[in-house]
């Protein structure tokens, strides 16, 4: 990432800053939940992110082919539902656990079709992490929140697959911008149903702008810069730190304390994800969460 004077952020710090930015944004979002609710907060983030991307990318909608439209519409729907469901999840469970459970989706995708014995180890570690988080004991973890986080992971995996397809048929910046516009259309009805208009105040627009910058504009720019300078495998390994950063963000910004078992679950999922990325024979294109 360079400015006009030629200053460049090295790829590894760029990815780490991106992860911190995303999780700080999630912490800000959760702070807004008590007033606006998860659906309205998610809508605020996506709509403002769309406006920011439109200003910078100015996509031309007239020249899209039928194939491009079909793919980008599916991409936008997946993007919107992924963000909405994740926010609904962390409304019920700690941020660190939500990120950890959501991360299972891309991990399973990375291991799909593999028959190597070593890859089964990563599956076992991830399953052990889920078992430690699962609310079947007296740990008082919300079951619906757990299921929503896992569902968000499914949409994240779908988002990666569709993102990989769309990157082959149209410009990435244009695709993300149009996808965010479509995601806005998908998610606004949920926000209206949650009463966003009745509770909206100017201060929330400022919070929403910060949320859009931290969760979308800044990390997307940093990640695109880093991906041009490092292998996808290295990028995937660094992304494995997200659950830990999410847990630390929840602790620092939201005073969410995890139990020893929950921290063990986070570490198991990180190990599984990093191991899967490290031992992958043919690294696939990585599409980060927006």
From TrEMBL:
Keywords from the named record: Cell membrane, Membrane, Transmembrane, Transmembrane helix
InterPro entries (alphabetical): AA-Vitamin_Transporters (IPR050638), EamA_dom (IPR000620), EmrE-like (IPR037185)
Topology of the protein relative to the lipid bilayer: Multi-pass membrane protein
One Pfam family linked to the record: EamA
Entry's transmembrane regions: 36-57, 69-89, 95-113, 120-137, 143-163, 175-197, 203-222, 234-254, 260-278
Keyword Magnesium included in the entry's annotation: no
Domain EamA: 144-274
Compartment(s) of residence: Cell membrane
Chief place where the protein resides: membrane
Alphabetical list of PANTHER family matching this protein: INNER MEMBRANE TRANSPORTER, S-ADENOSYLMETHIONINE_S-ADENOSYLHOMOCYSTEINE TRANSPORTER
UniProt name for this protein: DMT family transporter
């Amino acid at each position: 990432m360079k400015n006009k004077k030629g200053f460049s952020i090295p790829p590894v710090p760029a990815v780490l800053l991106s992860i911190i930015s995303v999780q700080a944004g999630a912490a800000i979002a959760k702070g807004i939940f008590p007033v606006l609710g998860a659906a309205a907060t998610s809508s605020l983030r996506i709509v403002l992110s769309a406006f920011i991307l439109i200003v910078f990318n100015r996509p031309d909608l007239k020249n899209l082919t039928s194939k491009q439209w079909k793919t980008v519409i599916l991409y936008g729907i997946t993007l919107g539902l992924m963000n909405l469901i994740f926010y609904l999840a962390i409304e019920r469970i700690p941020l660190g656990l939500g990120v950890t459970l959501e991360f299972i989706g891309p991990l399973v995708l990375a291991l799909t079709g593999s028959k190597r014995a070593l890859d089964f180890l990563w599956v076992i570690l991830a399953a052990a992490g889920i078992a430690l988080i699962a609310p079947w004991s007296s740990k008082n973890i919300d079951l619906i929140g757990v299921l929503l986080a896992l569902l968000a992971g499914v949409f994240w995996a779908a988002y990666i697959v569709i993102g990989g397809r769309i990157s082959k048929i149209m410009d990435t910046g244009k695709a993300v911008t149009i996808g965010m516009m479509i995601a806005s259309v998908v998610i606004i009805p949920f926000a209206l149903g949650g009463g966003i208009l009745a509770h909206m105040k100017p201060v929330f627009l400022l919070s929403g702008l910060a949320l859009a910058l931290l969760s979308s504009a800044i990390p997307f720019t940093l990640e695109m810069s880093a991906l041009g300078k490092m292998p996808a495998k290295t990028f995937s390994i660094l992304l494995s730190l997200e659950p830990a950063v999410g847990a630390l963000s929840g602790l620092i910004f939201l005073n969410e304390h995890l139990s020893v078992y929950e921290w063990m679950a986070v570490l198991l999922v990180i190990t599984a994800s990093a191991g899967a990325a490290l031992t992958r024979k043919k690294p696939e294109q990585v599409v980060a969460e927006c």
